[in-house]
Amino acid sequence: MTIGHTEERMMALAQSALAATNDGRVNWTSVDDTATAFKADQIAGSVLIESVDRDGVFPYSLSVFDSGGRKVESLKTGWYVSETDFEDDREAFEWNDLFKALYEAARGHALNIDTVINSLINDFDIPF
Fold first, then answer.
1. pLDDT tens, position by position, for the chain (128 residues)?
2. Which of 39, 52, 55, 100 lies 20 to 30 Å from 64, alpha-carbon distance?
């Protein structure tokens, strides 16, 4: 399928945010107690990646906010609707895997998952 300008820009933003996250150049924070929405504040605004259903899995949504906190754009994962609308005929949006990867990276950073797991592994390795 052909994607539009907005979708291309949101994918570029997600790719940049993912690369910055993987390089340790961005700070993600958990937005609420559900730990299913994560925000990265930057000078020009902020980015929010979240599990739409608040269950920690698909579907995901990427939202962009300006420096004043106003939502200026958002894009959700999903599928193109086919003429038959059979699940086997549906094609996933091009950004689905990218948003999932960004969500997982943001979650890992915000919740400090690797550090917690590594510390627990070390704790269990200490003899009593």
1. 679 999 999 999 999 999 999 999 999 999 999 999 999 999 999 999 999 999 999 999 999 999 999 999 999 999 988 766 666 668 999 999 999 999 999 999 999 999 999 999 998 987 75
2. 55
Record the tokens describing residue 114, joined without a space: 């690797």
Q: How far apart are CA 11 and CA 112, in angstroms?
A: 25
Q: What is the CA radius of gyration of the chain?
A: 17
Q: Which two tokens stand for residue 48?
A: 């929010």
Total of domains in the chain: 1
Range of the domain at 50: 5-125
Residue 66: partners with Cβ closer than 8 Å, 6 or more residues away: 44, 45, 72
At which residue do the structure tokens 């939502």 appear? 71
Q: 3-class SS at 13? A: helix
pTM: 0.90
Amino acid at 7: E
Chain mean position to CA 114: 17
